[in-house]
Amino acid sequence: MYPAEMMKQNTWIFLAFTIALVSCTGKKSREGNSSLPNVLFIIIDDMNVDINCYGGPIKSPNIDRLAESGIQFNHAYVQQPVCAASRASFLTGLRPNTTGVDYPYSYYFLEEVMPRHGTVSRFFANNGYDVRHFGKVHHGIEDENPTFQPSIKGSYYTEEINESVRKGGPKPPFEKTLEGDSVFADFKIADSVAWAIQSISDSSRPFFYVAGFHKPHLVFASPEKYWDMYDEKDIRLPVPKNLAQGSPDFALDRYYLNQYDWEHNDPLVPFSDEYARFIRHAYYASSSFVDAQVGLVLDALKESGLEEETIVLFVSDHGFLLGEHNYWGKTNLYEKGLQVPLIVSWKNHVEPGLETKALVEAVDIFPSLADLAGLGVPQYLEGTSFKPVLENPDTPWKKGAVSQQPRGLIADREGISIRTARYRYTEWINTFSGEIIARELFDYEQDPTESVNLALNRENAELLKALSAQLNTGWKSMLPEGITNESDNPVAPPSYAWGPEGVSRRAAWHLAFGGSEDEGWRKSTERRNEWRDSLK
User: Fold this and answer.
1) What is the Cα–Cα distance from 283 to 163, expressed in whole angstroms?
2) In terms of Cα–Cα distance, which of 323, 322, 333 is closest to 77?
3) Where are the alpha helices (DSSP H) in 341-386?
4) What's the pLDDT at 27?
5) Which has the higher per-residue pLDDT, 28 or 292?
6) How far apart are the C-alpha atoms of 460 and 455, rounded to whole Å?
7) What is the rounded distance in angstroms from the CA atom of residue 39 to the CA atom of residue 31?
8) What is the largest CA-CA distance in the chain?
């Protein structure tokens, strides 16, 4: 029931909840099970670590104050740097090889994984929480939880641009509006979350609210006042300007060049310095805009008097390259594509102003929230609660963080990457034969911008061997000392894409392996496996 009928149902469920909440009166503290904390889970789309509290140029005063009130994770990484796969992973607490999601969601995920396990939201709902979603939480679907979705007329907030695009006109990757914040979907999301927090603070049930904001995802749009926060001539150019020396071309896919009308669409030629600064300016402005919306939510929480009773977790679904490696986007296994801002705050429970270098992964979010709330951690989860890091930011933690990214419409290649305290090592493999077709190695102590792929240097042979062994031993071998994971989930079949966004992938699948969509995803998966086995 995950497609359209559930979305319609959720609209009415959400309205019903709203009516019920309006009728609530009483004092601003829970009279029921007060031992359970509230949870406010904030998800940003496509935000990298260029924000101010991480030492970047983006002005983010509201995210900064959240970091100042809790702990900032300086080495947090997603399992796959694309919306669908990353969200499927951290919402379920399962890794991509278990969810079976690449892009978009897969039939296996919707028909097997979701019914069997559900998400962190279902877990909290089953434990008595009032669960509500606001904005973009999943990618392309809504689940059983009441969900608020603001109406959007088009990809742009200026109707003249939308009309031009509908008539075949150019699709710019940026937008500067003269309208205020209130016309944007993200403002409406923030306003709804703020209203909900202030309206039900006297509820007898703890709340689990997920606020999913759309920006700074392309189009890089925001009102003019956020553009005015930056002087374009002061914006630094990306480094390195070209793909890392010695890295394979397929380390990047440059899908974005076909989605919008940029300065040009030649994948081998960097944008001009002037245009690169301009596009960075647009991204910065859009990021500052969404920071302001986060501020509305944080203000509402403070005014409600519930800060001491509420865990706040802030994260982006993945990073984003802004011209580094001559690339503008996600779906890459470089540092700025995989690293995300991750902040946890809980007044009088988490010491304010902390930072940690501990390696953590987005898949750790579900078990961490469950642990912090005192609900116990389900055994099937593939993440690790980082609650001990909140208690001691210097505690020795994971030996590595693992990420992956398939390539091509039929995922005939895939990069699998490990980030250790010092290195990033990536193996690119042929997914049918298992053959390693390329390697990448970066030393962040010597080369923090990933300018040179060290995997081609013979003197690094022993280091490559050791990192390859660590990577191929698997993520369980990288857990902190004394911590084990007892999950034993089946490996997902190759991702057979679901929904309208999956049309081109399904077409490519059947062109390569035969059959048709009418056979269903299970038979289609069998065809792929038979084709693979015929190569042996």
Assistant:
1) 23
2) 333
3) 365-372
4) 37
5) 292
6) 7
7) 17
8) 71
140 contact partners, CB below 8 Å, separation of at least 6: 84, 104, 105, 498, 499, 501
> Dihedral through CA 14, CA 19, CA 25, CA 30, nearest 10?
-20
CB 86 within 8 A of CB 79: yes
Give Cα separations from 86 to 47, 212, 405, 438 (angstroms): 13, 14, 10, 24
User: CB–CB of 356/389 below 8 Å?
Assistant: yes
Whether 138 is a known active-site residue: answer yes
Does pLDDT of 3 surpass 90?
Answer: no
Backbone angles phi, psi at 438, to 5 degrees: -165, 155
Instruction: Report the alpha-carbon distance of residue 285 to residue 1 in Å, rounded.
Output: 38
Check: CB of residue 146 under 8 Å from CB of residue 193.
no
Mean pLDDT of the chain: 93
Reduced to 3 states (helix: H, G, I; strand: E, B; else coil), residue 526 is helix
Q: Is the dihedral of CA 518, 523, 525, 529 positive or negative?
A: negative
Condensed to tens digits (0 to 9), the pLDDT of residues 420-475 reads: 999 999 999 999 999 999 999 999 999 999 999 999 999 999 999 999 999 999 99
**Catalytic-labelled residue, pool 53, 75, 83, 281:** 83
With tokens 């069998």, the residue in question is 526
Q: Give dist(CA 388, CA 393) in Å, integer.
A: 8
Contact 304, 201 (CB under 8 A): yes
Please indicate whether residue 133 is annotated as part of the active site. no
Q: What is the value of pTM for the model shown?
A: 0.94
Estimate to the nearest angstrom the gap between the alpha carbon of 62 and the chain centroid.
20
* Residue bearing tokens 């606020």: 211
Catalytic site residue from 133, 138, 318, 510: 138
